[in-house]
Specification:
Chain lengths: ~120, ~140
Amino acid sequence: MTTPVSSMALVLGGSVIGSIGAVFLKSGALLVTRSLSSIVLNWKLAAGVVTYLISSVLFVKGMAHGELSVLFPMVSLSYICSLFWSRLFFNETITSAKVCGIGLILVGIVCLGLGSA
Amino acid sequence: MSTATIPAHTPVDHAKRRQAVLIIIAGTFLVAVAQMLIKSGANRLGHADMVATAIGILTIPPLFAGYCLYAVFAAMMIYALRHGELSVLFPLISLGFVWVAILSVLILHEAMSPLKGVGIAIIVAGVATLGRGGSH
């Protein structure tokens, strides 16, 4: 069984879109107060949820065909993206611990994928 | 690598940050269950287009249940993101892979290979590294 390039594109696209969704979720979450309107009328939260849904649909479509051992590690792209978005939009620092942590996670997912094959 | 200080308008509450990490860790377990449900439902979708996929999510029970769990996770994530760093919390979602691997062995009786065990250990080490790195 081989993995179609279209499946890889769907998973990689879903990863980038998902990481953007997380940015909307965080900026929306910071605006939430005790009032209901701060949740219901929060366009950033809505954008985050919609973006997340879109990425999930792309994952469902992408994972439907092809090897999970190939497709799973591609999700790591979203973690790498989140590192840069966090620095850009929330002034979070890129520490060596974060880079090492994400690196370890990537290696671990590859091992997990190979072990599942 | 970085010596930049956190801006004065965002005071750091370490207890809340730890709580946010624990919420995401619990949430990834729900995501793992959701992913197993969605995977089993996705096989029934076949070559569906975008509209058929959307209808499938509403009408195929395992897909619907999977996405409901995702909604619960979204609520947990919104709560956690208020207090924690995105660059720490978002990669923690990878713990879902660990839960899926464990659930696959326990429920689907898949074989537990040595490489799988190594992968699980390395991901957990990565998550621990991230969790500690974020608070300093």
